[in-house]
Design a protein that fits this description.
It is a single chain. This protein has helices at residues 7-19, 24-31, 35-48, 69-103. It has two domains: 7-54; 65-105. The protein starts with 6 loop residues before the first helix and ends in a 7-residue tail after the last helix. Helices cover 64% and strands 0% of the residues.
């Protein structure tokens, strides 16, 4: 497991790699990272030609509302269906529990 590298460090590493003719091996040794990380960050920067490509965007989109109204409504429908199914299961469980507990009750007419 490699060490954590901040956004500013990534920029510094990519700048160093570009300045030193794409010497990923030396960058890996100098900055205590892996060869593949230095390579990947350099490629990301070169493809986007923007430093923001090096930002970590994991889990940043969770919890956002869909921009499209239709998608938002479909998401709400799925949630409501799940709640309805859960209630149906709870009701069926309650009925079964009552049925089982009633089996054990001795009625005076029996």
């Amino acid at each position: 497991m490699g060490r954590k590298v901040s956004y500013d460090e990534k920029i510094e590493i990519v700048k160093w790699v570009l300045k030193h003719n794409y010497d990923y091996k030396q960058a890996a040794q100098k900055f205590d990272i892996t060869y593949s990380r230095a390579y990947a960050w350099t490629q990301k920067y070169e493809q986007a030609n923007d430093w923001t490509a090096l930002k970590d965007r994991r889990d940043k989109t969770r919890g956002r509302q869909p921009a499209d109204r239709e998608k938002q409504l479909l998401k709400e429908i799925r949630g409501l269906k799940a709640k309805l199914r859960e209630r149906e299961v709870q009701i069926a469980f309650s009925k079964k529990l009552i049925e089982i507990s009633n089996r054990e009750v001795k009625r005076p007419n029996d």
